[in-house]
Specification:
By secondary structure, the chain is α/β, with parallel strands linked by helices. Helices cover 43% and strands 16% of the residues. GO terms for molecular function: hydrolase activity.
């Protein structure tokens, strides 16, 4: 009887050890308009007269067991294209920057750990629709908090938005102030005042005030806001959305910006962390032996 109790205690401790060694998820928010949601590979199907995704997934966008996606029902699943299929559900989605961003990080830093993507982007939305109190803002905060509750570390937000704010002079002139308030509100409500934000300066716009919005993005002076310029990246025939190769390149650019923002020690910390997580295998084996023994006594 005493042997059984002693082994039961060991079993509980082993389970706790295994749980403690499971790696945290490195969480990245994906937010903005259609170019963040992904429109790479879309074409107009003449038979159905509707936009259709060609289904082409380049190697840089292939699924990876170390890349997860938070679904609309707040569950972590293996990520695959299109990432925003259940978030930007009223539109046809294709390739975006999220998967090439994640794969580029894991390629450059193999011991980085698990990447958890939180898709929040919705096509055709101007910055006012992202203001605090609105549906898109509340959804972003709610989904991010759910991801953190499930056991994750918030590493940054990827933001690609502004095409819809190039239509009127009023919106383009007010863009910088509205964007700064949005970034500040997100940081405050997520209780992360230094949240790294990687915003994309527009490659295209829906109206004549593209340069006004780009200037606001490039001159953003909030701390820990990094700008990646998409100007010159190839566009689809609609002259608004990035092509699949452009999205792959943008994903790499965002990954480079993120990695460059890290102190050297951060990468080493992730490497050590991954080495600790690798102990999960022998610990699990030990747990299995204990379980087998208990079932036979």
């Amino acid at each position: 009887m005493l042997s059984f109790l002693w082994l039961s205690v060991l079993l509980i401790q082993a389970r706790q050890l295994v749980t403690a060694q499971q790696p945290s998820i490195n969480i990245f928010i994906l937010a903005g308009q259609s170019n963040m949601a992904g429109r790479g590979g879309l074409f107009n199907d003449t038979k159905s007269d509707r936009l259709t995704w060609d289904g082409t997934v380049p190697p840089q966008c292939q699924p990876n067991p170390s890349i997860l996606r938070l679904t609309v029902s707040l569950a972590w699943v293996t990520a695959h294209e299109p990432l925003h299929v259940d978030i930007d559900y009223n539109k046809t989605n294709g390739i975006g920057p999220g998967m090439p961003f994640s794969n580029a990080i894991l390629t450059q830093v193999p011991n980085f750990g698990v990447v958890g993507l939180v898709p929040c982007a919705v096509g055709g939305t101007n910055i006012q629709k992202w203001a605090k109190g609105g549906f898109l803002y509340q959804q972003l905060v709610r989904r991010t908090q759910a991801a953190l509750t499930a056991g994750g570390v918030l590493r940054g937000m990827l933001w690609y938005q502004g095409e819809a704010d190039t239509i009127t002079k009023e919106d383009s002139d007010a863009y910088k102030g509205r964007l700064e308030k949005f970034f500040t509100d997100v940081r405050t409500d997520l209780q992360y005042p230094s949240l790294p934000i990687f915003q994309v300066a527009l490659a295209s716009g829906q109206g004549p005030y593209l340069e006004t919005v780009r200037e606001a993005q490039l001159e953003m002076n909030l701390p820990h806001v990094h700008c990646v310029d998409a100007k010159g990246l190839p566009l689809e025939p609609d002259r608004l959305h990035l092509t699949t190769p452009a999205q792959v390149k943008l994903g790499r650019m965002l990954a480079d910006s993120f990695l460059e923002s890290l102190p050297d020690s951060s990468i080493h910390v992730r490497s050590n962390y991954a080495e600790t997580a690798s102990n999960f295998i022998p610990t699990s084996f030990f747990l299995g032996l204990l379980t087998t023994f208990l079932l036979t006594v």
